[in-house]
Amino acid sequence: MKPAAEKLLAGFVDVIVIGAGHSGLAMSRFLTMRSIEHVILERGEVANSWRYERWDSLRLLTPNYLSRLPGYQYVGEDRDGYMSMQEVVAFIDGFAEFARAPVKTGTEVTSVAATGNGYHVITNKGEWITRAVVIASGAFNLPTVPAVSAAIPNTVRQITTRDYRNPNALEDGGVLIVGASATGLQLADEIHDSGRPVTVAVGEHVRMPRVYRGYDIQRWMERVGLLDESYETVDDIRRARRVPSPQLVGSDNRVTLDLNRLTDKGVRLAGRLAGMRDGTAQFSGSLRNVCALADLKQGRMLDAIDTWIDEKGLAQELEPARRFAPTAVNGSSSLGLDLKSGEIRTMVWATGYRPDYSWLQVPVLDRKGQILHDGGVAAAPGMYVMGLPFLRRRKSSFIHGAEDDARDLSEHLAAYLDQTASLRSFKVAV
User: pLDDT at position 6, please?
Assistant: First the structure.
């Protein structure tokens, strides 16, 4: 008869990677190249979030030529286009096959706890003992919905961006979208075009043109070095990691989607949703200020690009430098909206996401539930994290940012394994 511990264990392995999105697969590729035994545990399918948790019309914010993973890159004819979600899934699926990634799909991790010299990982399909864990489950697991949602009248249907698929599934009537980052603006544009009146509650945002001086803004950010900016050189990395996604949209005509474009179409703007009182949404009076700050930061970014162009002597080969009209803010924008009147039938919370670490039994979380880490090296021996915003570089959360982060962290992980005991010396407590 086998010992009880052996009955419970699915296996021993040097490294377990949690999550088979592009970040987990990138780490797996480097572990394979270093001949480090590992397995990837994925709750659903490869690229699960891209498959099932995105709206129908979504495209990548980065041009196709930037879509690359270790040893693998986009090879289609539309280099300057933007992948649809189906194309993203196919791209990541192709990389998983190319990398021969050891993925166990349908395997949900329910607990990770320290044990002996490593970690005890419990899943719905058995238990594992491992020397190291790479958490690549992503930063966008659970929608962030403010507590004020509990005070919204029952006559208004509330959904999150994870629930949204297309305008046809919405109630007839007005829509209030809370949040003005990339997601909020894209949904406002699409829902308004469906014939529904739209109001956007605008908080902090990052304004950015889709095309500047003839090229995609992401190309300039890459060439100038903005996307490679290191977490070690940023004055306030905590603040940098909370910056909203830029107001960009992937489209065939490479249109710039900003607040001016929305208001020109008839979308109404309001300030940040500050509270609810007797069924009336109360908005902050900071709309003008937050828009002016976003305009200022956009100007500074374009100044940096122009300076780089001048230093490289490229100005004569490009379109002239330009600046964009300031965000037009109605001086009498409303500070309140009666949600009992029937004008607003749906509220869309485009207020971001947070990771889900409810299964993590290791004391590495701060008071807000975020993993404490130094450039992806978590505050526990042999634990790493991938795929978070500005993990090691400004580009970390993009598909093309995973390669450099995985290279760095796999090197650190390999050194850790060299310095620790082999699996044979583990003390297993099950």
Answer: 40
Q: How far apart are CA 247 and CA 257, in angstroms?
A: 7
Entry pTM: 0.93
Q: Quote the CATH superfamily of domain 143-349.
A: FAD/NAD(P)-binding domain (3.50.50.60)
DSSP 145: -
Q: How are the residues of the chain apportioned to helix, strand and coil, as percentages rounded to the nearest 5?
A: 30, 25, 45
In sequence order, what are the beta bridge partners of 348? 159, 177
Assigned token pair, 157: 């249907």
**287: which 2 tokens?**
């709309």
C-beta of residue 402 within 8 angstroms of C-beta of residue 66: no
CA distances from 6 to 1, 16, 61, 430 (A): 10, 18, 47, 9
Contact yes or no for 34/63 (Cβ under 8 A):
no
Name the residue among 250, 273, 270, 248 with its Cα closest to residue 261: 248
Q: Could you tell me the two tokens for 217?
A: 């803004």
pLDDT digits (tens, 9 = 90+) for 308-355: 999 999 999 999 999 999 999 976 567 899 999 999 999 999 999 999
Asked whether 25 and 96 are in contact (CB, 8 A), the reply is yes
Per-residue burial over 293-315, b = 16 or more CB atoms within 10 Å of its CB, e = otherwise: ebbeebeebbeebbeebeeeeee
Cα separation, 71 vs 294, whole angstroms: 37
Give the amino acid at 125: K
Does the structural domain 4-141+355-425 have CATH classification 3.40.50.300?
no
